[in-house]
Amino acid sequence: MNLAMSWNEWANLDAIGLADLVRKGQITPQEVAQQAAFAIDALNPAISAVIEVFDDAVHDPMKDGTNPDGAFAGIPFLMKDLGPTVKGRLQEMGSLLMQGNRSSADSFLTSRIRQAGLNIIGRTTTPEFGLCSSAENPAVYVTRNPWNLDYTTCGSSAGTAASVAAGIIPLSHATDGGGSIRIPAGVNGNIGLKPSRGVFSVAPYSSDLMGVVSVQGCHSRTIRDTAAFVDSCRGGAPGEFMPYWLPPEPYSELIRRDPKKLRIAVSHEWGDYQATPHIVAELEGAARFLEALGHHVEWVIPDIDFHAAYRAQTECYIMNFTQTISGLLEQKGLEQPPANLIEPMCIRVWEEGRFYSYRQRAKMQAVFNDTSRRLAAFFEDWDIILTPTMALPTPLVGTKEYLTISENPSVYDWFENLWRIFSYTPIANLCGLPGISLPMAELENGLPLGIHALTRQGEDGLLLQLGAQIERALNGKWNHGRRPAVHVTSIDAVQFPAKCVKDSV
Q1: Is 29 exposed, middle or buried (0-12, 13-18, 19+ CB in 10 A)?
Q2: 80 - beta bridge partners?
Q3: What is the 8-class DSSP label of residue 96?
Q4: Which of 75, 114, 311, 429 makes an SS bond possible with 213, Cβ 3.0 to 4.6 Å?
Q5: Contact 93, 129 (CB under 8 A)
Q6: What backbone phi and psi angles, to 5 degrees, belong to 430?
Q7: pLDDT digits (tens, 9 = 90+) for 8-60
């Protein structure tokens, strides 16, 4: 079967660009889905990013309720195998324990995704329950970075990050409980927005009040795709505990204008954590770039108790994941996590957290409150905080110290090791702030390095507006115009012949 377009054309189109071609009648949703499925067939053996393709959704993009009149006009979309459920589809959460687990209904966000015109054609990899930094358990799968297969994608939105970076698909679902959208976006050269608390619903199985730190989102290659995704999928379900942010105008309109002159605070020394000299140099370069765009840039460290904040974040993770694992064990009639089905660090987290008291949770929440108030006061004087996405370089595949297959006997030491590398992203989750990773920099070995921006709660549009200004200044050439080694443009044209789509770029 001929493809809808060449792989170069495919790689140069974002989701909105593909949707425009569908609306013009130049391609069909089925042809676009088939091309994405071919890309998965060709590249997934190398990167192991996609767990399963839904062949019926590829063949019939509207069968599950995809809205052809939505912003994305029926183009294909991949769901991370964690978070929102997809009716009738497996959701195994990166765990041997959950193999064969099939969802009985769409989550609220899933229904919004379908209404936006996105055709869910498969699911992407995640570490077990999304707890660690990389989808690397050889008994399940090992997801690799398409820029260099020796390196990890980080996570927990691992498969989504690799799929978007490799050009398989322009837009894919992601989640973020401490950096799981922004960190893999930074490592793989994608755009990753962690929205404010109160943008995307996690109904009906949870709420922002219960989940506290985890939010939904996406990876993309253009700011306008992320803006359109947020515009189309945001909003609370009936019964939410708190109000949901509604901007005065759609982000897709807002990003057409440059932001006002912004006051940007730049920092990398957060408590005990600091970035390597090379990463600091890249941050300095990004700061100079923003200064050249007309913004006021100054090196300033927020006045918060970083040690207390990260200790509270650790305790929150332990309590939340303990409850997640306990709930799954109860569903299966089990009293203990089976050592052959659940990874060692997940078991240790469960063991540590099951004896936490309400008093401990209240103390954790008090630290969250204090940190949020202090950052809010900081944002009275500053519009943006700029940091690297990570403090240390991307780990090699198999670096067990960051994985839930780690043999580290101490849960607290294991988390401290995570914060040492992922030093800047968790604060946004703790405070409910929006944060974005933009592919502006690179590591010494040539792998991408995201530059991370935070702003005040509810001002997600400002991050997208700044991102759009940068994108225009770069002529759309994120990652300095480079592409990964494993990419759709390297697919053998003889294997997958393509017809030409005029005016597609």
Answers
A1: buried
A2: 124
A3: G
A4: 429
A5: yes
A6: -60, -40
A7: 999 999 999 999 999 999 999 999 999 999 999 999 999 999 999 999 999 99
State the Cα–Cα distance between residues 445 and 438, nearest whole angstrom: 18
Interatomic CA distance for residues 112 and 47, integer angstroms:
29
Helix (H, G, I), strand (E, B) or coil at 77: strand
Hey, what amino acid is at 296?
Answer: H
Angle between helices 15-23 and 223-233 (to 10 degrees): 70
| The two three-digit tokens of residue 200, written as one number | 């995307």
In this structure, what are the phi and psi dihedrals at residue 152, rounded to the nearest 5 degrees? -80, 160
Residue 269 is encoded by which pair of tokens? 């020394």
Sites in the chain below the pLDDT cut of 50: 494, 500-505
Closest CA to 336 of 350, 357, 320, 319: 350
What pLDDT was estimated at residue 242? 87
Confidence (pLDDT) at 156: 97
pTM over 0.90: yes
The residue count of the chain comes to: 505
The answer to whether 304 touches 371, Cβ cutoff 8 Å, is: yes
Measured distance CA(168)–CA(13) in Å, rounded? 11
Cis status of the peptide bond prior to 6, with omega within 30 of 0: no
pLDDT tens for each residue of 77-119: 999 999 999 999 999 999 999 999 999 999 999 999 999 999 9
- Contact between 441 and 451 under an 8 Å Cβ cutoff? The reply is yes
- B/e letters for 395-413, b = 16+ CB within 10 Å, e = fewer, are bebebeebbbbbebeebee
Residue whose tokens read 């590829």: 58
CA proximity to 89, closest of 126, 139, 123: 123
Alpha-helical runs (H) found in 175-255 = 182-188, 208-211, 223-233, 251-254
Chain-centre distance for alpha carbon 286: 22
How far is the C-alpha of 329 from the C-alpha of 335, rounded, in Å?
7
What token pair was written down for 167? 């050009």
